[in-house]
UniProtKB/TrEMBL annotation:
InterPro entries: Ribosomal_uL3, Ribosomal_uL3_bac/org-type, Transl_B-barrel_sf
Region (Disordered): 227-246
SUPFAM superfamilies: Translation proteins
Keyword Transmembrane helix: no
Single GO molecular function: structural constituent of ribosome
Family matches, as NCBIfam families: L3_bact
Record's keyword terms, sorted: Ribonucleoprotein, Ribosomal protein
Name recorded for this polypeptide: Large ribosomal subunit protein uL3m
Pfam families: Ribosomal_L3
A single GO BP: translation
One term under GO cellular component: mitochondrial large ribosomal subunit
Assigned protein family: Belongs to the universal ribosomal protein uL3 family.
Domain of life: Eukaryota
Amino acid sequence: MSLWDEWGVKHMVTVCQLDRLHVVQSMTLQKNGYEALQLGLGYRSIHRLTRPEIGSYIKAGVGPKHHKCEFRVSSDCLLPPGLELTVRHFVPGQWVFVSGWSKGRGYTGVMKRWGFSGGGSDFHGHKKSHRSAGSVGQRGPGKVWVGKKMAGHKGPDPRCVNAKVFRIESTRNLIFLKGALPGYKGSVVKISDARGKTALKNNHIRLPFPTFVPVPGVEYPVTIQEPPPQRDPFLYPEQPLYQPND
């Protein structure tokens, strides 16, 4: 969908919902050998769960979840089971990693699957070979090497993209991310903190640690959006782009 900021600049965003996201279990170094948080999302009928899964949800004090996922964290970020995580865990303007599975495209040719340029429109001496793969190897080896890019099934494949938080809405637990995300509409994606060079872009943002905890008696705004630039992007620059003598 499309959103506009205060200057009238159009932003293409993808809407994600944090549907009943709770901490199911905390993995500790003494008990499990590593430190992580197991989060549960959504709702699933209790008749489709095993008894060990039902027992883990009862122990955590949460309802049956449709999806579970682990996030590796440090010891000072371990949260108690049963705690609900909301969109206020994220801050507008923050960069995050979004992991998911791309769409399945079925059987495709080399031009769509691998981006081959194909044959030209004036391909003299050939017919019906404009989108063909061409040669698949040399005469010397006398074989086709393993991993040769050829036509075949495209997707679904695991993908991880960088995305910027544009807006959050706490009433329906909606998070608006700039750009496109992998997967179909309604699919589940994993949103995690950015790492590496992307994490350096968040140095000027004060992020909640380990997560957002509301203070009793304090009212918070329902919708928070990324602050717009101070200068109107549609104004002409003060310095001319070219000189009259150019």
